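Q: Structure for this?
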Amino acid sequence: MKVDGFRFLPRTFRPLYEGRGPFPGEEDPVWAPFEKRLAESRIALLTSGGLYLKASQESFDLEREQTHPEWGDPTWRAIPAAANRLDLAVAHLHINDEDLLADPEIALPANTLAQLVGEGVVGSATSDHLSVMGYQERSLEGWRDKTVQELIVHLRDQNADGLILAPV
Amino acid sequence: MPVLARWIEAAGIPTVVVTMMPSVAEERRAPRVVGVEFPFGHAFGMPHDRVMQRRTLELALRVLAGASKFGTRVDMDMEWPVPLREAYQAWQPKVASPIVRKLLEAQRSQQNSS
């Protein structure tokens, strides 16, 4: 089966995504070989669903996005792998967040990953997973120099052997 | 997100992008791509459907650990179990996002001036 990537997208928005090619300077292949066996590897997850811990973390900045539609908050949040659904909130203006609040596993499958760890399929999961707010591609400002560098430091600190990224 | 994956991959950490728009991720030169024909906001499947979520995550792990070369794309062979019209409506925010409002206004003013 070949996925139709535009099946759920309003037709008028298709040209915004299709046929635009790579970003300038991002044409060449990049490749980090996955060297270990999965059963000996530590895996991290990253969602762009705008999840954050409602008791201890600030929301992503939606107010500025309302006044600057082409801007998206480039900050990130560490989400403990053991976080409870009820600890999480969603800051995202581009999707209906009802399903995500009801079951965050649809974007950040931390429990499913923990289950695979328990079965020995995966060696371990990082103690924190990562959350950003989507919509970063129109403005890469703040991402390459700050956010991504922080994410890389965090992933290295957590000894992550691989990262699964899931845009909303 | 594909660009984010590229930068993290360039730092030596292997990545896979699980996405509803795999052709876009390919165009943006993501190293490994798993395509899912699911509505936005649901990269791993239906809420509370542990089987669907697990199958998607397992495919992502297989591609992450097993892909042999840059640009590998594997699509998930699973249909969204909700009628298209209903699913198409359900994922969208109740209020259009700021950028969508701006684009719609631009389209309207273009139509009015032509």
